[in-house]
Amino acid sequence: MILITGANGVVGRQVMNQLAQEGTAVTAVTRGNGEAPLPDGVAAVRGDLFHPEWIEAALEGVEALQISPRAAGPGLGELLRLAAEQGVRRAVLLSATTVEYPAGEARFAAQFEQAEELVMRSGLDWTILRLADFAANALAWAPQIRAGDVVRGAYGRAATSPIHETDIAAVAVRALRGSLRMKAVHTLTGPQSLDQVEKVRLIGAATGRRLSFQELPPEQVRQGMLAQGLPEEIPARLLGSLADYADRPGPTTSTVEDLVGRPALTFADWAHDNAPAFGG
Ligand SMILES: NC(=O)c1ccc[n+]([C@@H]2O[C@H](COP(=O)([O-])OP(=O)(O)OC[C@H]3O[C@@H](n4cnc5c(N)ncnc54)[C@H](OP(=O)(O)O)[C@@H]3O)[C@@H](O)[C@H]2O)c1
User: Is any ligand 1 atom within 6 A of the Cβ of residue 133?
Assistant: First the structure.
């Protein structure tokens, strides 16, 4: 049995789908707010990992655990302690490239660093996946693209190598099954460095439209996000890292191809797969 935290997240959904397709038993930890049904055959445990006491029973018979630091929050130490006690063998942690390649406010990378330290000291076998910017972050542009041909945002020249969630899941599934070397840190990125101007153009190509990026002052973007009711943390996280990626692009690695044995999927592939979300 494999237990997935953050099951309704971008990565959790993909991992559940891939495991369910191959017939592996999966339990999803969810607070029950997800709108989409879980894949066939996936059992659900309802709970909030910020208060993990309830999870003891759910850990029975679990061989491996996928951990999203965002979903586990301050309950991570307790979750790992219970997992070790219950005989869970492996933990796969979804971390971030910012631990190794600083970008944005240090407090955000520090949260991932703390989670990595807890997993390394847990007594379980572990795999840490340091993830680049998700290609799926571009879904934040969907309302603007459905409404017109211009995406407005800050730091158009900020460049990362965005990773397709299918590739994150392909590596995570191998780690959960125990088919990768244990006690290893892998830095996973997409195959190609792209700035925001290019990403918008590629979504245009996938949807058969001519889309462009219009640069706005960062403070205007921040105020706009706060006016939409987003918590201060969201623009702080986004704008801080974009400012740094405009000066120095995020990393590009070949790790997906090295571990999965096929080329990593491109942002163009992701845009094609997700064209309907942009009205394409
Ligand atoms: N986006 C990026 O570019 C990026 C880059 C590097 C690393 N990461 C990290 O990668 C990990 C995976 O990200 P992801 O986008 O797949 O999704 P995620 O943040 O792992 O999962 C989101 C889900 O977690 C559940 N959840 C449980 N407790 C929560 C809480 N207190 N607050 C918020 N959500 C809670 C929610 O589902 P229920 O409502 O069903 O409980 C939510 O749908 C995250 O830790 C993220 O920080 C992201």
Answer: yes
Per residue in 128-154, pLDDT (tens digit) is 999 999 999 999 999 999 999 999 999
Cα–Cα distance measured from residue 7 to residue 14, given in angstroms and rounded to the nearest whole number = 9
pLDDT on residue 185: 98
Residue 55 Cβ < 6 Å to ligand 1: no
Cα-based torsion angle of the residue sequence 114, 116, 117, 118 in order, rounded to the nearest 10 degrees: 90
pTM: 0.97
Q: 54, 50, 10, 48: which is closest to 29 by C-alpha?
A: 48
The SS3 of residue 131 is strand
The full set of domains in the chain, from first to last, is: 2-132+163-189+252-264 (3.40.50.720)
Q: Which of 241, 237, 258, 257 is nearest to 249 (CA)?
A: 241
Among 5, 18, 31, 68, which is best to mutate for testing ligand 1, by the most ligand atoms less than 8 A from CB? Answer: 68
